[in-house]
Amino acid sequence: IDGIHTKYDKEIRIGAYDAIKQYKDIVNQDPYRLHYHLMPPVGLLNDPNGFVYYKGLYHLFYQWNPFATEHGAKFWGHFSSRDLVRWKEEQIALAPSSSFDKNGCYSGSAVVHDDQLYLFYTGNVRDEAGNRETYQCLAISEDGVDFVKKGPVIELPSGYTAHFRDPKVWKQDDKWYMVIGAQTEKETGTVVLYRSTDLCNWQYLSLISDEQEFGYMWECPDLFSLQNKDILLFSPQGIEPDGYRYNNIYQSGYFVGKLDYQEAYYEHGAFKELDRGFDFYAPQTTLDEKGRRLVFGWMGVPEENEQDHPTIESYWIHAMTIPRQLLLRGDKLYQQPVDELVNLRTELIEYRHVTMEDNQLELQKISGKSLELVVEVKEHTNKYFSVFLGKTTRITFDQENKVFTLERKSINGEELETRHCHLNKLSRLRIFLDTSSIEIFINDGEEVFTSRIFDDQENDTISFQSKGKTIVDVYKWKLSN
Ligand code: FRU
């Protein structure tokens, strides 16, 4: 295999490390840099890849273009951690240096087999005429750091266009399975299922999808079981907005159902969005040693105002979400920050029984840019209740209409924009703020809003407003790593 350790592979790795060195100071001085989220050292980060627990460490790889703040020939960058909170930047895992991945080592996943780490990813190739080719490739490591490319294990089957990518692998009853995001020749989105006994030879089984059409391409599928159901998580493209739903250019969401492994048939319910904010895409899960189903998402969306991000001036763009745990209640996924995140907490400020009635108030020392804020709603006979963060970010629960809203300044700074969801009752808000990002967990993860926010740097005030009466307890921690 003409992969790792070739002259060209070395060259482009050195190029990437040079880019880090060259822009390090500028990147690190950017006031919008986050404090406890994973970000690219330079350039562009997108999807989480290869999320896995291996030999005592969590590994998270990511789509990375070190050479520009635009999409391009992606590398796999790599972080590792003992506790999901403190992360170490590891050496580059994969570089787009081979004939079968020269235009990008695209998204994929990791599994552990015989003490080795197996990475599956999509080799993205453009031929001389600019046409797309796709190869599902394997790379293996003995230590989780150095990977040896084994080349393609799956070629494009008939019936699909070259939009065929993002392999996610798992084990079930002594066999390996893989889902791949695909576009049929009729240009509808779907997911394809493969099976293998040895991780090298793969058998095409079937496509898993609705009879009816749902978008033109499904990216980054992830199939896993949770509480006896099989969840298919994926990111469809080409879905039209529908009321409060599907308001971003591309979505991420899931089906809850049951996969019949014998018949290779997946029966499932309706599509639900996983996150209701402005910036969330391509989530990937793993099962850890504690039996938790964990997820990272990309805090961004492809093509969604990427050129307007102010961090571009400082040679970087995008970040991962905080790590979260997925739980299933009924047929709905709940997302909760992983327990380990409490280790970031310092300097608790708390207020009990704060009563508001047709007024707006600030609480001393409830302010900041890198913090966790918990608001327990004790009583509300209000019309609405709002939390303002900085100048332009506002969270509102409209009790009369049972609507929850996040308002932010648009990335280009020109207007205020909103995302909404229906919510019957607001009992608890848990907000993670990190300079230019916000993650809002409503009622223990029933709904989550993930967004970047580029607000006035100086303004770190937080205030509360109630129309009618609201009584809350407020807790705030500074978060630092
Ligand atoms: C999703 C995606 C994947 C692809 C990768 C390329 O954001 O388009 O489908 O593998 O990004 O970076």
UniProtKB/TrEMBL annotation:
Keywords: Carbohydrate metabolism, Cytoplasm, Glycosidase, Hydrolase. Pfam families: Glyco_hydro_32C, Glyco_hydro_32N. SUPFAM superfamilies: Arabinanase/levansucrase/invertase (SSF75005), Concanavalin A-like lectins/glucanases (SSF49899). Residues 37-337 form the Glycosyl hydrolase family 32 N-terminal domain. Residues 340-471 form the Glycosyl hydrolase family 32 C-terminal domain. It catalyses: Hydrolysis of terminal non-reducing beta-D-fructofuranoside residues in beta-D-fructofuranosides. Its main location: cytoplasm. It is found in: Cytoplasm. Its EC number is 3.2.1.26. It comes from the Bacteria. Pathway: Glycan biosynthesis; sucrose metabolism. One of its GO terms (molecular function) is hydrolase activity. Belongs to the glycosyl hydrolase 32 family. Enables the bacterium to metabolize sucrose as a sole carbon source. This is Sucrose-6-phosphate hydrolase.
